[in-house]
Structures are given as structure tokens and as C-alpha cells.
């Protein structure tokens, strides 16, 4: 594919998020280019106030892409959209899409789209969030009609910080919990590095469905732009796994 002709994704991330771009780069492979803008730095604001402000300023942040021709945009900050509820999130993103002139979706709605495509109805949340935010996350998924079987909390040492969670901590926390075999593991949020953990867990449990906010968002972006849903030759194995499962289910539904 000519580099000029590849579809383009706009990515909106929190200012300190170290994870979204590296993971999107691995997922998208040669299937799609992405261009990033960041929410503003908000000194002195607590987390809840900061998340509310992200929603308030998001139209202006998206406008910062100017006339760059985008095929889609992902808001890679699930936490701010948990505040809206699924119906509120859909209405908000529909308004953003109309104003921007291209599809805009939150990572939380992209995750719901992946759940629907895969026929997922039950989740176990793997959450690096503070307990109150984990509660908001759980409420969001349950209001969307999904059953949450349980939560695997993943603090980073003595506090909750998704940007500091290590692969070893992530795997150790999952091992300590009795996770039902028929539940989907959902690694919440866009800021926790998950690729190494997904690879190891996928080797041990090849039939278990595992989703992350970034994985679901990359899949939605590729599908929406009409690109290869598995990321093309450079796409990550976990994306190929998700895209293959979604395609097989769709084919079965139309058989």
C-alpha cells in the first residue's frame, strides 16, 4: 500500500499516557496511520474533576486536528466516558462525529462494539483504577447489558496508577483470582501496558477471549476505515485473533 493512500486515525490521549501510541503502533501494523493529539495538562485538579474537564474540552481538542483528512478518531481515555453511561457516551460521540465530519468513538464504546461482534455477554474486569473508578467502570458495563463476574484489582505497589503497572504484577494478580473459564478478561483503560501479558495468557488459555481498550479501539478503527481488520502484515497476533473470531462469528450468523 502506498504510504499516502493508507487510511488515517486520529488518536486523543491523556497527556501522561505512555501506552496508547506504542500499542496502537503494534496493533495497526501497516493497515492504518495514526496521528495523536493530547488533552491539556490540568494542574491542581483531582482525578474526577480532570475527567469531567476532558469531556468538556474534547470538541476543541478534536478541532486541533484542523483540516487533516481523518477516516476516524478514537478517544483513548475510557475513564472520562464511564462518567457518561453507555447511552450518554453514544450521544456524546454522535455529536462529536457530526461536528468533526468523520466517525469519533470512545475506547469504551469500541470495547462494547468488540463485545457485540464476539458475542461476549460476561466480563471479568482487570482494573488498575482506584476503587471508586473501578466501580464506575463496572456500572458502565452493566448498564450496557453485560454481566460482570468479578474484578481483579491491579494496584501498582502501594497505590493505583495504570501507567506504573508491570507485566509481572498483572500476571500475578490474575493468577491469584479464581477467574471463571467462560468469562472474557477485559483489561480496562488505555494506560496499562498489556501486550506481554496478553501473549503469555493467550499461550496458556488459547480459547479465552481477552480484550483491552486499545485492542478493541484499533480493531474498530480499522473496520470503520475499511482497512484490513487484522492490521495487515504487521498487525499484532492479538488483533488477528480478535478479527478472526469476529469474522468467523459474522460468517456463521449469515450462513
How do you describe this structure in short?
The chain has helices at 20-28, 47-63, 78-82, 85-100, 107-118, 131-143, 167-176, 195-204, 213-225, 237-253; strands spanning 8-13, 33-38, 72-75, 104-106, 122-127, 147-153, 184-187, 210-212. With 255 residues, it is an alpha/beta fold.
Give the helix/strand layout.
Layout: E1 8-13, H1 20-28, E2 33-38, H2 47-63, E3 72-75, H3 78-82, H4 85-100, E4 104-106, H5 107-118, E5 122-127, H6 131-143, E6 147-153, H7 167-176, E7 184-187, H8 195-204, E8 210-212, H9 213-225, H10 237-253
Parallel strand pairs: 1-2, 1-3, 3-4, 5-6, 5-7, 7-8
Helix pairs in contact: 1-9, 5-9, 9-10
Mean pLDDT: 93
The amount of helix comes to 40-55%
> Beta-strand level of the residues, as a percent range?
15-25%
Let me know the largest β-sheet.
4 strands, parallel
Write down how many β-strands occur, each being a DSSP E stretch of 2 or more residues. 8
User: Which H/E pattern describes the elements?
Assistant: EHEHEHHEHEHEHEHEHH
Tally of DSSP helical segments:
10
Measured distance between first and last alpha carbons: 32 Å
Estimated radius of gyration:
17 Å
Strand order across the largest sheet: 2-1-3-4
Structural class based on helices, strands and sheet pairing: alpha/beta
Question: Would you identify the regions where 5 or more consecutive residues have pLDDT less than 50?
Answer: none
Shape: globular
Amino acid at each position: 500500500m502506498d504510504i499516502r493512500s493508507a487510511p488515517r486515525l486520529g488518536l486523543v490521549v491523556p497527556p501522561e499516557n505512555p501506552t496508547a501510541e506504542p500499542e496502537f503502533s503494534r496493533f495497526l501494523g501497516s493497515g492504518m496511520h495514526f496521528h495523536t493529539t493530547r488533552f491539556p495538562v490540568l494542574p491542581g485538579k483531582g482525578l474526577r474533576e480532570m475527567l469531567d474537564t476532558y469531556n468538556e474540552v474534547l470538541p476543541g481538542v478534536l478541532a486541533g486536528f484542523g483540516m487533516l483528512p481523518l477516516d476516524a478518531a478514537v478517544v483513548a481515555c475510557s475513564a472520562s466516558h464511564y462518567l457518561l453511561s453507555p447511552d450518554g457516551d453514544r450521544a456524546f460521540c454522535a455529536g462529536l462525529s457530526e461536528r468533526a465530519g468523520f466517525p469519533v468513538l470512545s475506547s469504551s464504546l469500541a470495547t462494547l462494539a468488540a463485545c457485540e461482534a464476539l458475542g461476549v455477554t460476561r466480563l471479568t474486569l482487570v482494573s488498575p483504577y482506584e476503587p471508586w473508578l473501578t466501580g464506575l467502570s463496572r456500572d458502565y458495563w452493566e448498564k450496557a447489558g453485560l454481566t460482570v463476574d468479578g474484578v481483579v484489582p491491579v494496584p501498582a505497589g502501594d497505590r493505583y496508577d495504570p501507567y506504573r503497572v508491570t507485566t509481572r504484577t498483572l500476571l500475578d494478580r490474575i493468577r491469584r483470582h479464581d477467574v471463571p473459564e467462560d468469562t472474557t478478561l477485559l483489561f480496562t483503560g488505555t494506560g496499562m501496558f498489556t501486550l506481554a501479558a496478553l501473549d503469555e495468557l493467550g499461550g496458556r488459555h488459547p480459547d479465552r477471549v481477552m480484550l483491552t481498550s486499545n485492542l478493541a479501539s484499533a480493531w474498530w478503527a480499522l473496520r470503520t476505515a475499511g482497512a484490513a481488520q487484522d492490521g495487515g502484515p504487521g498487525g499484532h497476533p492479538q488483533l488477528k485473533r480478535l478479527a478472526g473470531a469476529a469474522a468467523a462469528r459474522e460468517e456463521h450468523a449469515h450462513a
